[in-house]
Each structure stands twice: as C-alpha cells, then as structure tokens.
Batch of 3 targets.
Target 1
Amino acid sequence: MTNILQALIFDCDGVLVDTERDGHRVAFNQAFAKKGLNIEWDVQLYGDLLKVAGGKERMHHYFNSHQWHDNITDKDDFIKDLHRFKTDCFMQIIESCQLPLRPGVARLVDEAIADNITLVVCSTSNERAVTLVVERLLGPERRSHFKAIFAGDVVSKKKPDPEIYNLAAHQLNLEPTQCVVVEDSRNGFLAAQAADMHCIVTTNGYTEQEDFSHADLVVSELGDPPNIQVTLESLKKIIVNK
C-alpha cells in the first residue's frame, strides 16, 4: 500500500476554535439561566465535565451526580430541550464572531486544498453548531472544499469510541492509515487511535496535562508565521515514516 496522505480530519471544539471555556461553557450557563435553573458551571468545574464527551451526555452526568429537579418527568426530553437552548446560545456567540479560529487552522486548510487532500470534520458536538463554525469562521469558499461534516448524534457512541471516525472512513472510502486526525483531547486522540488513524494533538488550557504519549505529534497550536508548528508536508512525513 502506498503511504500517502489521503485525508486531513479535524475535530471542531478546541481544534478549529478554542470554544470550550468561552463558548460552550458560557452557552450552557446562559441556557441554565433562561430555564430558571440556579446552576453555573465555572471554569474548573467545566474542565472536569469535559471528561464526558457530548453536551447532552455532559448534562446527564452533571444532574446524575448532583440532583434532578423534582418537576422533571422525562429526563431525556428535559435534556434535549435544554440542549436546544444551549445550542441557540452557542450559535449566537459564533455568529457574533466573538471566538476566532485557532492559529494555523486556515493556513493548514489552504495547504490541503491546494494539494487536493480530502478535508473532513468529525465532532461529537451538535451538527448545527459545528457546521456554523466551519461556514462562518473558515468561510464559504473553504467550506466548499470539505468533503463532509460528521457531528452530533450521527453516531450512537461518542469519543473515545472510534465510531465517528470509522463512519467517516466507511462513507468516504478512506484508508484509515492514510488519514491524519487533528484532536485536542485524550478522548479524541483515543478515538482516532482506535480507528487506526494517525493523530496529532493541539493542546489547550483544559487538555495540556492529558496523556498523549502515543500521539504522532503534540503541539500547543498549528501556528502561523513566524511560529508555524505543523505544515501539510510534516503531516505527509508522518504517513511516509509509518
């Protein structure tokens, strides 16, 4: 089998945009307030909750660990409704362009487009929110070059389960060993690894202390000039050298 880079696959939150602390966390708190819930997730608590992948799953975990309100008759419906409020709040944050792309993302996407590398997004976050991030912050021209966006409930098991990466490989006819995934968390890294894909990690404040000892590369960011840390050529070398 020829060792060539076939596809570059991005996670969304923490990879394309550093959304967790000042995006999703804020949106969760806004949704709690709109629903009259006396709940606020501070920065430290939200960091702990990030160990649970998926927004609805994160809320289930929180309420199971604390206390469900007595007037809740259907927990699943309650969480789905609350998550819709949260997604609307998050999308308003993205629409307002309060959160920028992480350094190097647009540059690396442009390098992949120029070299005809398949571009994909695989995220456990809500599909509407992920699509908006790609369309609004990367722009419609770059968005048009993405082969697919796999997000939200398109799979039944969230990361660290590899289901979303296996789905992308199957539907797009990708050879896993010729794909490089860009992740920011251990859950994401483990999912990519279990799917037999190469994985580089761009850490953030929530994930920099996690164990990425078996990742192909770990950096603080992809980087823009003069601080470029990852290029398309360096990703190609990862494939060739394996």
Target 2
Amino acid sequence: MGATASGKTRLACDLAYVLDAEIISMDSRQVYKGLDIGTGKDLEAYTVQGKEIPYHLIDVCEPSQQFYLHDFIRELKISFEQILQKGKIPILCGGTGLYLDALRKDFSFTQIPEDQESRKELEVMSKEALLLRLNALPKATISHVDRSSKKRIIRGMEVAHHLLKNEVKLTSPQEVYHPMYLGIKTDTEVRRNNIHRRLIQRMDNGLIEEGEALLKSGISHQRLQELGLEYKFLSLYLQKKISRLEVENLLFTAICQFAKRQMTWFRKMEKEGIKIHWIDISSSFQETLDFVKQHFHRQAS
C-alpha cells in the first residue's frame, strides 16, 4: 500500500517473482477494461525477468457498468481462495482505502440493494424530516447509520427496512484474512515530482487517445467524469472546455490532493490499531525481501 506514484506495483511484482506469489489489485478503477493509462495498470511490470506474474481484479468490469464495494469483497474472497489452493501467497497491491478496510471491517450492508422508488420520495425531504422518520424505526436496525448527510440517512433507512424483512448474515473479514501491511514511505516533495513526471509521460503516451477511445466505445461524457481524476479532466478537454495546459495543471493539483487523502486514510488506519510497516522505496530490495520473509517465518512459528 501507499500513495499514488509511490512504486507499489513494481515492488509487488518483484516480491511476487521471488516468493512465487500472485497479485490481487486493490485499485477501485483498475477493475475497468480500457482504463489502462489513466489508472496506471502498468501491465508490463507483471513480467519480471521473463516470468509472467499472475494478477487478479484487473479488467474484470466494463467501464459502462458500476463496480461496487460488495463486488470487490466477493471477487477478493474468490481470488484469495484460488491463490491459496495453489499453495501460493496472495500479495494485495493498491491504495483504495475502502478496499484496504475490507480486510478487517464487515461491509455486509453494502450488499443490500438500493430502493430507487423510495429514494425519489425521500430525497425531497429535509434532513430534519428524514431524521424523524429514521428515529421512528427500531433502534437495532439503525445503530449503524451515519447521520452526517441526507444521502447517508436515506441509505441508512434503506438498510433498516431491509433488515426488518430479511436476515443478513454478518461475517468478520478477520476470520479470513490476516494481512501484513507494507506501506511505501515517500517524501512529499519526491511524491509531487513523481506525480508530475508520470502525468506528463502519460499525456505524451496515449492518455488523451485513451479518453477518445472510451467515448467512441459508447461511454458518455458523464460516465467518463464519474470515473474520476484523469478521465474527468480528459472529458472537459475533449469537449474543448479547457486546454491541454489546463488539463496538466488541474490534474496535477487533483492527483496531489488525492495522494494527500490517501496518506490521511493510512494514518487513520494506524490510529485504529493497524500496524503498518513503512518501508523506504529507495532502500535495497533485498532488505525489503528479508523483512517480509522474517515476518512470515514468525507467523509460521
């Protein structure tokens, strides 16, 4: 794990090569086909010294569809078990906070479907009116509800109504996963330089054409913008609303802000008791490998 442009994929692949492991992507956008350059799939990195490193949860969904958290949780478990059945080690690689949390938190409620008809009625109500209706429901069904916004209150009511009619089996991910968290440590200025260099490289090597290809495939500008960051600004550029220079400047700022939010999420994990072993990407690979091997030896003994 680590902020964007920290070198996660390369390190994961090098470790997988030595440890005979397979990689599960924990990136919420790499699941989409055709989002290659913008999401940094770096598929060439999955060949190490001529050996193909198997990977999972990349290119598993059409970009026109929505890949939800519960989809990830389901596919993660399937991939995880498949790798273990081969007698190999799963290396999970990515920086999507919710996906990382899925290793330790129960997100069973995310599988409860949305009620579009009910939403139409509720969305026009004030927050105060929604809270009154929410609080009229049995306490056991609303203890989980985040009341900070109308959107979350409405979702909480959907979940509560579902729980009144259905039994939801809660299973702790901690019964399945026992992860060792390796975090890549990067200096802020170094990270900004890496982000800028990578952005210019991607712009010069097909990012704009990738946006054009997605539009030609039938993806709308609205959907392109929903896919976030690179694709949001590509959409504006391809509609001639901003210039290429504006794309570079605005996107650079947005990616740096995203990296900052990622680091904030990792600090939150640590405050919640998660031990993250921070490693310096500039240190020798052998040091990192020895550290990982020692950890697994301790786990086994």
Target 3
Amino acid sequence: MHAIDPSAQIGAETEIGQFTVIEAGVIIGKKCRIGHHVVIHAGAVIGDEVRIDACTVVGKQPLRSKRSIFQDEKALPPVRIADHCLFGAQVVVYTGCEIGEHVLVADGAAVRENVTIGAYTIVGRNATVENFCKIGKKCKLETNCYITAYSEVGDYCFIAPGVTTTNDNFLGRTQERFKHFKGVTIKRGGRIGGQAVILPGKVIGEDAVVAAGAVVTRDVPPRTIVAGNPAHVFREVPREQLLEEQGWE
C-alpha cells in the first residue's frame, strides 16, 4: 500500500515500496527503485535508474526558527536528481537541491536546501552538507564530515571522516558576525585529513593537503601540506600525488 498523487508521473519498470508517499507533480524516471516508507515531496524531478532506500525523504522544506539567520521565505525550486543516483536509508535531501548523475548519498546523510552536487560524488554515512553549498564532481565526503553553509568544494576533493568546517568567527554573538559570515573554500583536488577543523572563510588551495587533526587558521597555499594546531606548512605535496599525474580527466 502506498499513496501516489494522480498528477505524479512514474516511469516504466519503476518499483515503488510499501507505505511510500509521492506528492503532486513528482516526476520519476524509468527503472527506478523506491523503497518502503519513502516520502517524495511535491514537484521533485528524479531521473532514470535511481535507487532510493527505505525511510528517505526527498524534497523536504526547510524549518525556520525565529532565531535562525536564514529568514528568506521565498519559494524554493523543486529538488532535481539526475540519472543513476543512489540514496541510502534515512537520507534527507531538501528542496532546491540539484544532484548530478551517479551521485551516492549514503545512509543517514543530510543535504540541505540550495545545494548543488556534481556527478559521481560520494556523500558518506551521516555526513551533512548545509545550505548554499557547492560540491564539485568526483568528490568523496566521508562518514560524519560536516560541510558548513556557504562553502564550496571543488572537483576531485577528498574530505575524511569527522572533518569540521565552520563559518562564524563570532560564535553566535553580536551583530558584527553577519558582516563576516562565510564558509570555507576547498579548491580542486584539495584533501582534508580526519578530524581536521577549518575556520571560517579559509581557502584550501588546489591540490593542497590538510593533515589529520590540523586546525586551519589561515589560507593553505596550493600543492602544500599543512599540519598541526594551528596548522603550519609541513612540505610540498609529492609530485606523484598531484591530480595531473593521476590520469583521471
């Protein structure tokens, strides 16, 4: 038993699980697999051969606390999911997102509104991508990492488990913080080691490496390894580790 609005369009050979809700205007492509207890909100557009596992929510509207810094109430566009994507169990993808083809979003992950994710990127279990973020293609965002609002992650980046990014140097105090509110930027090929912390507005240069446990308090130059608390330059990235040597293009 499931609830499918009459206006929804379901492609050929698509399987719908028990107790799933598909709201008005939803478009689902062919040969998709929609699990049990999935909720797909109004207007969502889902490509061909997409798998969505049990208890996942697609196209959720954001909640706005009276104290939230995000008070823009204008309507967001429906979520758009390209072909061949995979979504694990209990994933939440908000409306206003655009997700490229062959993206994997693993169990328990959350992708907030106004986020774009490039093709072939992996978002690991329980990872969170906050609102107004741009994630490039062929990235790996590992288990329990946190990408703060207004951040940008370039193509081919690697974010290890437990990485924390931040966007507020004032820690929620005084109106001055709104003048400086900014996420982090990780340029193409940047790699961040486990449990590293990146402070607001910092830029990780192309092909740079942040060592595990480092606290990044200033911009990291391209092709440079930094380590420590506060992070300092350790050495250059070995030539054989650079993207241009991998033949991935």
